[in-house]
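Closing statement on the beta-D-glucopyranose sub-project.
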Amino acid sequence: MKNNHLKIGFGLVLILSMSMNLFGQAAGVEEKIDSLLRLMTLEEKVGQMNQYSGFWEFTGPPPKQDAAKVKYEHLKNGMVGSMLNVRGCENVRAIQELVVNESRLGIPLIFGFDVIHGHKTLSPIPLAEAASWDLEAIEKSARIAAIEASAVGINWTFGPMVDISRDARWGRVMEGAGEDPYLGAKVAVARVKGFQGDDLSAPNTIAATAKHFAAYGFVDAGREYNTVDIGTSTLFNIVLPPFKAAAEANVCAFMNAFNILNGIPATADKFLQRDILKGQWGFDGFVISDWGSGKEIVNHGFAHDLREATELAANAGSDVDMESYAYIAHLKNAVEEGQVEEAVIDDAVRRILRVKYKLGLMDDPYKYCDPSREKELLYHPDHMAAALEMATKSIVLLKNENQLLPLKKDQKKIAVIGALAADKTSPLGSWRLGSDDGTAISVLEGLSNYSTDFKYAKGPDLTEGLVHFVFELKINETDTSGFAEAIQLAKESEVVVMVLGEHGFQSGEARSRTKLDLPGLQQQLLEAVFEVNPHIVLVLMNGRPLAITWADEHVPAIVEAWQLGTQSGNAIAQVLFGAYNPSGKLPMTFPRSVGQVPIYYNHYNTGRPASETDVFWSHYIDESNKPLYPFGYGLSYTQFEYADLQIEDTNPNAIEVRVTVKNTGKMKGEEVAQLYIRDRVASVARPVKELKGFQKFALNPGEAKTLVFTLTNTELGFYDNAGKFLVEPGEFDIMVGGSSQTGLAGKLMLK
Ligand code: BGC
């Protein structure tokens, strides 16, 4: 006897799972859930809405000392519905057994984990992957992440992060797809499909989560966990589209956010979670809070205490409480005393159970706990090959004066300089909780496959002391040892490959920066090397756009290599030696100076866009308005020419835009053709440019291809300030080219 109820156990759950209805047909999932809900006590229902972190890992403020004991008791008593941060099949099985065998109903747990860009085999950080504009490759990367994660018992990822952000100071830009809602929505769908696959009940697919709902990418001044206050036009047209796309792709879960949005904590935001997500969009999955965001409602000044925060969050549609200990402490009482209706609880539990059924956990709670899969699949050679392909596709060539790149196969006397060139951990990037330190191929290792004629000088260290993702990073600002050796080597060399940038943990959660320069002594090192040898190829490793304006003015070749994951060095070497012709395009604007941030291509025109005669126009007196590198920008070792733009508007429901692209250079290459629109006059002013289509394709030298883009109401319309989607007739500019700032332009009159 437990909790004054007879023990029923998993056996019954299984019987319910297989049960027949009155007509002898297999009962549908909804009927099974109804039956189960009827058996559940209020306390057990609340238990499904409670999530704890594993005992040995945390990704937020650590729990109190006695938490492990409390968690153990709660697991045993059916007061927990899901766990996060549990590692390995054996541990997952042990906890699942505890719940299934000991709790009264034995309802299996879901095991969540931050599988963000791979589990063991790491793909590039998500921002880098978005730079590939290759949706198939991105989907495959998420698929592999799901295969590896599910092999260690995980059946739910807290990804993809679909937050749009225009602020490179915010450390979490590394985790998203950049600044654009159209690209962001496409990438969101690719990632959801990759994680969830075609059959969620298969043992190698996992539930995905669209996060952080909503507007977390717009934190004031790019400072982590800060306030968000944005207008409705930005909310509906920029922030929400990737979330809507993820919901339409049947993502299983949404995660709300730490921030307040226009005065309302996202976790307690009824408008977002009930009206829009579960109402207008008809989302039938569940919403989870972010780590402790339930209790932070009190800190925001929106609730007096944890009890009130509990009521507000549950009523607003936040179904699962991650590590606030709020629902488990107060929700039952809140229902009994009438502040929360039991129907709210039933709805939340129904949503959670639905996902458990979809995953097949109700039939077999241990289906993700096969240690032989764990052994076979982690770091599988096929995964390594795919990670390499994804990494090469994510690289963006920013500058290539006098075709310094690709390096010749017999290039003599190459100097490689920079601490990051030998680093086997930093290129793995941030948000890689399942991975192993030191598993990246370094640039030095990669280069050794192509050249024997290079020497390495580290230069100054990038960091000081201990480096771990939960601690603040100390960047070396003072110790210049290593300068002399690097300068000497540069003097003796024909070409210098400098590998500079951010440490892997300088971006990610709680890693906001006020500067966007090369951290520590690296700028000084770059300038000192340039003095003695200007033939520099700068390879950048970073988790966010950097303002490398000096480098752009002086250094002849610049390669944006982000943090490319396990295969980093191999991918970089392939690009440097021309084994792969770079094809990436920036998913986020690179500023000239941090003072320009937020800077983004789809801005409004302003009332005073430009003046040549006076000072009273929208500009800075000490910096241009222009970005250093615009959204959509990226070079290739070959050239592409755009010609013959045609806009066919005889069918107003599907306007066809044609353009011919030719490879006019000497090398095979891939191009990303981008289509932008501008709605010249509308009832709510529209931006000067909006991406509404793109195609990535390969062309041999001399080869041409005619592309067809189709524009329908979906692309030509916009949301007004009440969130209503409008398509208004009138004049549109149509632009097609290889970046947001170059290409051909035409006109469309929408009738
Ligand atoms: C992050 C989430 C993450 C969660 C669990 C939070 O701090 O904001 O994105 O999924 O921790 O690790």
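The chain has 22 helices and 25 strands. With this model delivered, the sub-project is considered complete and its resources will be redirected to Aim 3.
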